[in-house]
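S.,

Sequence below, as promised.
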Amino acid sequence: MKQRVTRLLALLMALVLFVCAAGCGTGRTPQVSEDEHKRFTEFSEELFRSELLGNTINLHYTLAYPEKCGIEDYEILLPTVSADSEEADHNAALEVLKELNDIDYKQLPADDRLTYDVLEEYLKTSLEGKDFYYFYEPFSPVMGFQANL
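The prediction came back faster than expected:
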């Protein structure tokens, strides 16, 4: 699950960076709050970093130079698959969803709203799959740990 979250977050961050570089700040409507935009950006960047720090393989699979994202000191961790880690992932996803929902969606610019929507949908879907722990295939040919190695 963390691997999927990490890949999604990497994609989301790349999308946010691309959209911002392509014209962030243009076409904003008056109801957009710069404070809320900043809050959402900080939230998504911290989420991205925390997800990468949970698994060193994913960290280096996603980032060639983690120090460029402010990740310098980190504990070396391997992915784990267990009922306990699945429960921890579920609780973490609940907490992230709660923090996400505390952000005022209506005050976000359009590019942040897209990222918000994708992240919210992903979190809700992963929370719905809590009871399907044994369906996860950590060594699947395309998405398994060994594919990242």
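The longest helix spans residues 2-21.

Coffee later?
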